[in-house]
Amino acid sequence: MPRGNRRMRKWVAGVAIGLAVILFATAAWHRFEYRYCNAQRLNLELAASGNPAQLALYLEEDHARNAEQFRQWMLSGLLLAIGIALWTGRLDPDALQQRARQFWIAHRAHPPLPR
Question: Any stretches that span the bilayer, and where are they (predicted)?
């Protein structure tokens, strides 16, 4: 494999891994923000609201929107991580064949030792 190609693949893999980490971190932050920050705001609105049925419906819709957004972020990160693994895991066929030859040479049956 040409040396420049290997460097380019490492660079692209690094960038892609960084993007995957950002996607997973964003998904985790949105989940944290929804569960802790929005919960306080919504509880205050519930206390101030005169119509608890309407607020309960709003809470249910908000939860569904957040869960869908969380799934989308996690799926994006997962697909990117799978793509990185597949792309960086490709082997050079010539190098693989050479390694196989070296393995079989090193592990072939040896003639019996003289007595």
Answer: 12-32, 73-91
Q: Any idea which residue has 């072939």 for tokens? A: 108
Q: Rounded to an integer, what distance in angstroms lies between the CA atom of residue 66 and that of residue 32?
A: 11
Buried b (16+ CB within 10 A) or exposed e, 1-13: eeeeeeeeeeeee
pLDDT in tens, 48-67: 767 777 777 777 787 787 77
Using one digit for the tens of pLDDT, what is the confidence trace for 93-102?
677 678 778 8
User: Which amino acid is present at 30?
Assistant: H
Answer yes or no: are the C-beta atoms of 30 and 66 closer than 8 Å: yes
HSE-up (13 A, CA, CB side) for residue 66: 18
- What is the phi-psi region of residue 77: left when phi exceeds 0, alpha when psi lies from -120 to 50, beta otherwise? alpha
Cα Rg of the chain, angstroms? 27
CA dihedral of 63, 65, 66, 70, whole degrees rounded to 10: 140
